[in-house]
Design a protein that fits this description.
Length: about 60
């Protein structure tokens, strides 16, 4: 199983550029749905990685 993760700054680029909220177009239903799916998969991937790392001895990741 694999998961793609996206940096928060990529998803929220308009916030970083200092664009006021009223100047940005409203996000559509599917864009918000996709954001939610990405956030859920990212959280799941982080939990799986933490579980994997907790179950192995310390040392280099090989």
């Amino acid at each position: 199983m694999s998961a793609a993760t996206y940096p928060e700054k990529t998803l929220l680029a308009s916030h970083a550029m200092g664009v006021p909220a009223h100047a940005r177009p409203a996000r559509g239903f599917f864009a918000r749905l996709l954001d939610t799916v990405i956030a859920a998969r990212t959280e799941q991937a982080e939990k799986e990685l933490a579980r994997y790392l907790a179950g192995r001895p310390a040392g280099p990741l090989v």
